[in-house]
Amino acid sequence: MKHPAPVRAAFRASFAVLAVTLFCVPPAALAQDALKDEVKERLGRVEQSLEDWDVPGAKRELSEVEPLVPAELEPLKYYQGRVAFEEGRYDDAVSLLEGANIEDKPGSYLRLAKDTRDITRRHQRAESEHFIFFYPNGKEEVLVPYALETLESIHRAMAEDLGWTPPNGKIRVEVVNNARELSKVSTLTEKQIRTTGTIAICKFNKLMVTSPKAVAQGYDWQDTLAHEYIHLVISQSSRNTVPIWLHEGMAKFLESRWRGKGGMAMTPSTLALLGKRVKADTLIPFEKMHPSIALLPTAEDAAVAFAEVFYAIDYVHQTKGSAGLRTIIHELKGGQKDRKAVEAATGMPFALFEKTWLAHIKKQPFPQELLPREERVVLKEDAKGKVKDESEKKGREISFGDFDNVAEVPARRFAHLGELLRERNRVKAAAEEYAKAHKLVGDKYESISNKYALALLELRRLDEAESVLRGSLRVYPGSPSTNVHLGRILIFRKDYPKAKVAYLEALASDPFDPEIHLALTRIHGALGETALASRTRTATVQLTNLKPEQVDHAAQVFLNEEEELSEMNVGATPAAQPQPAQPPAPKPDAGR
Questions:
Q1: Is 272 within 8 Å of 372 (Cβ atoms)?
Q2: Cα separation of 263 and 265, whole Å?
Q3: Which of 253, 370, 481, 580 has CB 3.0 to 4.6 Å from 313, enough for a Cys bridge?
Q4: What is the pLDDT of residues 293-309, one digit of tens each?
Q5: Whole-angstrom distance between the N-terminal and C-terminal Cα of the chain?
Q6: Is residue 287 very low, low, confident or very high in pLDDT (cuts 50, 70, 90)?
Q7: Residue 6: its H or E element
Q8: Are 75 and 21 in contact (CB under 8 A)?
Q9: Does a cis peptide bond (omega within 30 degrees of 0) precede residue 291?
C-alpha cells in the first residue's frame, strides 16, 4: 500500500536530514565514510521493511543501526517512531516523532499518532490467542466474544488457505465510533469515507473498523473483520506486492471462510448489476482496471470491476484450489508482474485466462428479475429521513417512511395503505393491501416483505409469513430485520436449531438489538449451551434496563404468547415486575 504524498515527503526529508547530520558528526563519532554509508543503507532497509509490511524486519535493522549513531539523531528517532506507531505504542510514537522534528500536519505520522492515541486512550481491551480487540467503553462490549471468535476463525482459515500467520505478535483491532474518527486514524478524508461508504481499513499493521452503531441499517461487521484481516495477510505474505485488483478479489472471495467455504460473499444485488452489464456487453476489460479500480470513471464501473475480480479469483480457486492463490502471491513476492503470476498459477497464457474468466462470469446465475441495489454503507448522519432512536421500543414496527425506495407507484400506494390500516388495527385489511403490493413486486423490497409478514403474524398465518420472509432472504441474505422476524416464528415453534441460525445471522449485521440477545439466551438455554446462554444474558443486561434475574425470566417466557410474534418490547419495562392493568387493545379486525 502506497503512502500519501505528505508521508512520502517526510521520508525524503528524513534522508536529507540523515545526510546532513552524518556529514556533520565529528570524525571521532564516525571513523570512516563506510560507516556513514552503512547507516544510510540500513535506514533505507528499515524504510523498505515498513513499506513491505515487515515490522519485525524493520526492528531488526533498527537494532543494528542504534549502536552506530547518536541516540538524538533525527532520522533514527523518526524510524523508531514509525515502528512504535506500527506496534500501537502511541505515546512512544508521539515522543519520538516530535524528537525527529516531524511536522504536525494532516497526513503526517505525528498527526496520525496523536489522533490515534487520543481516540483510543480510553478504549477497553480484550485478548484472544492472536488478537487484541480495542473498543469504546459502552455497548461495543457485546461485540467482543463474537469479534474474537470471528478473527480466530479467519486466522485458522488463512493459515490453511494461504499458508501465512502474522509473525509480529498479536494483531491489533481498533473499533472507532464514527466516520470522523476513522478519518483521523487513517489517511482517508471524511469526504472519501462518506462518498465510498468505507467502514473499515487495514493499514499500519492493524485493522480499523467502525462500530455498527454508526451505520443506519447496520452492516456485515463480522465478514468485514475477516475481509480486513485477509488484506493484512496478503500484504504481509507478499511483502506488499499484490495489485489492488487481485487484493480485493482474494479478500472478497475468502472473507466468508470464517463461517464456512469461500465464495459466499457475492450478494444477489451485486450479481444483478453484473448480469445487467453482461447483457449489455459492457464489462470492464482487464486492461482498464490498471492502475486502480478506484480510478474508473463511475461508481458502477468500479462495482462491476470488483465483481469481475471476485469471479477471477473464484475461477482460479475452482480450477487450482488454494494452491493457485498461494502461487499468485508467491510469484508476485518474487518480483513477477500480475499477469505472469496469474499465468504461473493457472498454467495458461493470460489472454486465454482472461477469455475463460469472462466465460466463467457469463455462466453465473444472474437474477434477471432484480434491479441492482446500491450497497454502499450509509452512515446514520447521512441517512435520509428519521433513523429510529435506539432507546425506542420496537412495538409493532409501524413506519411509513420504509416505502420511500419503492419505485413502483401502485405497489408503494398499496403498501402505504396497508401500513395505515395496520396502524389502526385493521390487520386483515392491511394484509390484503400488502398482498397486492407484494404480488406486484415480489421479493424486491425488504420493507414490503417484512410489513406483509408482520401483518400475517398478527393474523397467526405463520406458514405464509415464513414463506414471505424466506423469499426476501433469497434476495437480501443476512437482513437483520427479516432474520429476526423469521427467528420469532422458529422459536414459537420451538425449532431452536433453526432459530439460532436466524438470530445469529441477524446479529452479524445488527449486534445491538436487545431482542437478538434475549432470543439467543432462550435458544442457548433450550439447547443446553450454558456458556453461550451466559454470554447472551450478559449482553442483554448491557443493552437493556433489565437485571440478570429479569433477563432469565424474560427469556423463559419469550414468545410463549402469540401476540409477541408481531409486537416486541424487549427491555421496555422490567419483565419480572407485575405491571398495572391496561385497557385491552382492540383485537385485529375480521374484515374491513
A1: yes
A2: 6
A3: 253
A4: 766 777 778 888 889 99
A5: 63
A6: confident
A7: helix 5-24
A8: yes
A9: yes
Helix, strand, coil share (%) of the chain residues, nearest 5:
60, 5, 35
Q: How confident is the model at residue 571 (pLDDT cuts 50, 70, 90)?
A: low
Indicate the DSSP class of residue 286: G
Average pLDDT over residues 77-103: 96
Cα 3 to Cα 142: distance, rounded to the nearest angstrom: 34
pTM over 0.85: yes
Please determine, for residue 395, whether its predicted confidence score (pLDDT) is greater than 60: yes
- The answer to whether 439 touches 426, Cβ cutoff 8 Å, is no
Amino acid at 543: L
> What is d(CA 546, CA 560) in angstroms, rounded to the nearest whole number?
19
Strand partners, 206: 172, 203
Helices (H), 442-513: 446-458, 462-475, 480-492, 496-507
- Is the CB of residue 209 less than 8 Å from the CB of residue 174? yes
- Closest by CA to 143, choosing from 480, 539, 571, 552, is 539
Query: What pLDDT, on the 0 to 100 scale, is given for residue 190?
Result: 85
The bridge status of strand 131-135 relative to strand 124-127 is antiparallel
Q: What is the C-alpha separation between 192 and 189, in angstroms, rounded?
A: 5
Query: Would you state the pLDDT for residue 583?
Result: 40
**Burial of 517 (C-beta count, 10 Å sphere; 0-12/13-18/19+):** buried
Alpha carbon distances (Å) from 359 to 273, 328, 403: 17, 21, 38
Closest C-alpha to 111, from 12, 42, 185 = 185
The secondary structure of residue 404, as a DSSP letter, is T
Q: 502 and 471 in contact (C-beta within 8 Å)?
A: no
All 3 cell numbers of residue 535? 454470554
Contact 106, 90 (CB under 8 A): no
State the DSSP code for 399.
-
Give residue-wise pLDDT tens across range 154-202: 999 999 999 999 997 899 999 999 999 999 999 888 887 877 778 899 9
* Strand boundaries in 83-238, DSSP class E: 124-127, 131-135, 171-176, 200-203, 206-210
Please state the rounded mean pLDDT for residues 76-92: 96
Amino acid at 322: S
Q: Which three cell numbers stand for residue 101?
A: 522534528
Residue 108 identity? S
Specify the pLDDT at position 416: 94
d(CA 188, CA 24): 38
Asked if pLDDT for residue 322 goes beyond 50, the answer is yes
How many CB atoms within 10 Å of residue 215?
23
How far apart (Å, rounded) are the C-alpha atoms in residues 311 and 360? 8
What is the C-alpha to C-alpha distance for residues 245 and 424, in angstroms, rounded to an integer? 53
- Using CA atoms, how far residue 104 sits from 10, 15, 109, 113, 120, in Å, is 11, 18, 8, 10, 19
User: Which residues, other chains included, contact 254 with Cβ-Cβ below 8 Å and sequence gap of 6+?
Assistant: 157, 158, 161, 226, 230, 262, 313
pLDDT mean across residues, the chain: 87
Q: Is the pLDDT of residue 16 over 90?
A: no
Mean pLDDT, residues 498-515 taken together: 96
Q: How far apart are CA 496 and CA 500, in angstroms?
A: 6
Residue 206, SS3? strand
Q: Please, which pLDDT band fits residue 573 given cuts at 50, 70 and 90?
A: very low
